[in-house]
From TrEMBL:
PANTHER family: HTH-TYPE TRANSCRIPTIONAL REGULATOR RUTR, TETR-FAMILY TRANSCRIPTIONAL REGULATOR. Residues 37-56 bind DNA. This is TetR family transcriptional regulator. It comes from Mycolicibacterium obuense. The lineage of its organism: Bacteria, Bacillati, Actinomycetota, Actinomycetes, Mycobacteriales. GO terms for molecular function: DNA-binding transcription factor activity; transcription cis-regulatory region binding. SUPFAM superfamilies: Homeodomain-like, Tetracyclin repressor-like, C-terminal domain. InterPro entries: Homeodomain-like_sf, HTH-type_TetR-like_transc_reg, HTH_TetR, Tet_transcr_reg_TetR-rel_C_sf, TetR_C. Keywords: DNA-binding, Transcription, Transcription regulation. Residues 14-74 form the HTH tetR-type domain.
Amino acid sequence: MTRRTPTGAAVLQPGITKAITEAVLAELAERGYARLSMEAVAKRAGVGKSALYRRWPSKLNMTLAAVADFSVGRAEIPDTGSLAGDVRKSLEAMAHWLSHPQFSRILADLVAEMGRNPELSDFVEGMIGRPRRARGRILLDRAIARGELDPGIDIEFALDLFPAPIYWRLLVRDGEIEPEYLDKLTDFIIRGLGAH
């Protein structure tokens, strides 16, 4: 028996959601979070504001949903068969994520805004930080299972080692991430983790 959508119920069309998400990211990159408005997003997406409010209750929810959709999917958990290979692939994916032309502007703005807006900070941690770290934990758990890392390793500390140097180099120093840099960083992280 086929279930029908009740008369009057909103049907969220994926194409419209995608257009809105792209509009949110474009507006964030151009205007920043503080100047982002539901009106501007709706106009850019070619929809009415009601289409936004059917999906998200607020600007905050809409923003973080769009940023999380963009970010969490780029948290690759490669399985190359070795810790060194997994770390290298993970760092490469992280560098691509953080150096994305649009997202690098968004992230810098969000980080600044998080210092002024604790609610935004909590949302970013919940919707982006924790899901990305959960994927990184899989990588480390596999290395423990293979005997490459000690089971007592400080996983939370280890997870901090992955994004910090890349973030610093790209967004603070405005540097480049070359393959040689990723190779050196991989070696440094592997040694820092005490890999066998």
